[in-house]
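step 3/5: co-fold with zinc ion
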Amino acid sequence: PPIIAGKNRRKVRFLSKPPPSSSTSNQNQPGVSRPTPSSSSSGKMTSQAPRPGIPVLFTQPPPIRDPLVTETVDLQDATLDKCLPFLKGIQSSQQGPFNACGVPALQRDDHVVYLFDSLEDYPPSFVILDASRPWMAYWGLAGLFLMGEDPTRFRERLISTLRPAQNSTGGFGGGRGQISHLAGSYAAVLALAIVGGEDAYSLIDRQSMWQWLGRLKQPDGGFRVCEGGEEDVRGAYCVMTIISLLDLPVELPPDSPARNAGLHKLTDGLAQYLSRCQTYEGGISGSPGVEAHGAYAYCALACLALIGPPEETIPRQVQHMNLPLLVNWLSARQYAPEGGFSGRTNKLVDGCYSHWVGGCWPLLQSALDGKPQGKGPPATTVGSLFSREGLARYILGCCQSHNGGLRDKPGKHADSYHTCYVLAGLSAMQHYHYRTDSSATTSEHFASAFSWRSTPIREGNVYEKSDRLEPLHPLYGIPYPRADEMRLWCEARPIAP
Ligand code: FPP
Ligand code: K
Ligand code: ZN
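step 4/5: write tokens
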């Protein structure tokens, strides 16, 4: 689950001697090539010819290899070994049919069954997920919507799950008796928006939510994720999501401690705080001074695109942060032959970054396309800034679990977090998301956030039309109309600052 950041980080260790299996004496020397993954240990299967229709970019290890042997390089090689048979479409467990591009079909029925199951009971060993109840609801409901199912059927059940998780002091915890947390509150608000309707909206105590958010605001512009908790860009993104969907006042509540630091608004100092999170690599980290990561990059960019028009809020950052370097780092997240994204430098491809990294691209594309001119897509666009083909091949070839559900990579089990975000990434890649000059809200704040539209991309696809998913709002991760509906319902019931 994404709620606990930084746990179980793997350390890169440099081996002091060559690995025991080594048969040559000069394996570590630059320029001396080691066996490529397809001819190594488990390479029997990968020496088989790929299906027709697959470019060699996606069937062979990269031509340039790092000759230094590290744990990192070995893990990358092992990952290629696992992925190549799936990319070539020759793994015996893969289900078809395969199309003329050598891409397997989306196993719709299996994934829908998996998602419905994910909203049922869990065995005792899953007690660790008790703090993630709002997330489990969000992942299941968003996944079902993406697959064309009707999530509004879960309205009553969702309300009864979330009611005891809300605290009278504002916000939602993971369940009854747990303190409020921005991650859980974000997931709860999104899940309620997806099921929609008066009963769902009115469950949320917006007045106490606003008071609580005021207590999380920090003097440097950022937000703590809970009272006494850590401050990071997840917090900033979650707060902007919540106040824009719920039409909470942007003013800080009168008793907010951040007022003592001279701040007046929830948005004060926020863009400056986010710009301090850009690292020397060009990526964006969870908080100033630590490693850039794709999941935090999405939080930061989506947060900026919520605060104002992305062509203003993202490049305005250029004063403090470097846009070309950001594009460079984000581009380096997509690997070949895998086709999917990694979260950070020298780490492995993972299906969930189809959303976290994949979701950054439409935001940057929109920022680069500039101020919207009309009700339709812009007359000219910089276009797609990553390989849509590579992502489609990774998702459909490598991320579909044999028994339903989607996964990080071959060899991993499916879970509802990966099922949701792999499908969200597939959907984002299948649609062109752009902003128009009209917004669902007439208020001075967040007009840009409610001005997005989308249209399916019909040309140059390596997947079948029957595998096209529903579009999600690029900032909120919920159906477009549900974002507008929640906002308008709340606008009709203003909270006094
Ligand atoms: C590294 O895990 C992952 C992180 C440091 C951040 C995870 C954060 C999210 C998924 C997003 C949270 C967003 C919200 C809105 C709460 P890892 O070391 O297991 O993975 P890696 O090797 O791919 O970096
Ligand atoms: K990971
Ligand atoms: Zn993952």
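step 5/5: annotate
The radius of gyration is 23 Å.
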